């Protein structure tokens, strides 16, 4: 009998998308640590076949068997209904404005530090834990939050890493930073929010820890994939249809969003579920749609 997590992953692959990504966590290293994750279990038992270093795919015959002989997954002509939840309080306009104000204040603080002392790039790419910790302490935020703020600053064109990849470059402010400082607070926030909406980077992944308990470097570009911006905008569009004070659960939000954009199901590096959670977390920290995105 398959473990519960593996059985759920198999049903998802058979009924939703046959390709399973595992770039975010190395399945074999996880196995050596004593945890056999669903992808590895399904691969070892023939339910999934590796087709690249980062993806596995379920053979058509296996998927048909799991679906009980149906050749194709069920297709609906209308989007699935969202599962709503009214348990969460809706932030006031003042609270949302405060969130936005804290964001631009923190970005200003972290980029100002880089102006005084640029952060050297790691040989492997991105900004390392020591520099991120320094920047975090300078503005009084957690380390992972500082890494995420660096990503927002880079998206808005306020920070860049100078030099080619094979050179010892450093992260420092761009000329755009002075122009950004001359804007009023609302315009500064709008510039960051618009850049985030159109970026394919997942800012909240920076500063997180991998399976070896090492920090994912900020500004490394490790989690930038085509389609992320489109998916992010679609998630927010679906949320805009939710009448406050209701909120949508993450599973139903994923299902509804992918109904509109099914071709993105296999293109999101973290998988649709984790990708959606990242969109929700980032939009909340940006002060966007906070009343609708609790799940």
Q: Per DSSP, what share of the residues sits in E-state strands of 2 or more residues? A: 5-15%
Radius of gyration: 21 Å
The neighbouring-strand order within the major sheet is: 1-3-2
Global geometry: globular
Distance between the termini: 32 Å
Q: Return the average pLDDT rounded to an integer.
A: 83
Largest sheet: 3 strands, antiparallel
Number of strands: 8
Low-confidence stretches: 23-33, 290-295
Helix/strand order, N-terminal first: HEHHEEHEHEHHEEHHHEHH
* Helix-strand makeup class: mainly alpha
Q: Helicity level, as a percent range?
A: 40-55%
Helix count, DSSP H or I runs of 4 or more residues: 12
Précis, in short:
The protein has 295 residues and is mostly helical.
Salient structural properties:
47% helix, 3-stranded antiparallel beta sheet, disordered C terminus, 295 residues, mainly alpha
Written description of the protein model:
- This protein is 47% helix and 7% strand.
- The protein has helices spanning 4-15, 27-32, 38-44, 60-66, 93-116, 129-139, 143-155, 176-182, 185-197, 228-240, 250-260, 272-286; strands at residues 19-21, 49-50, 55-57, 84-85, 119-120, 159-162, 170-173, 247-248.
- It has 295 residues and is mainly alpha-helical.
- A three-stranded antiparallel β-sheet has the order 1-3-2, with no helix packed on it.
- Residues 23-33 and 290-295 have low confidence and may be disordered.
- α1 packs across α4 (60-66), α10 (228-240) packs across α11 (250-260) and α11 (250-260) packs across α12 (272-286).
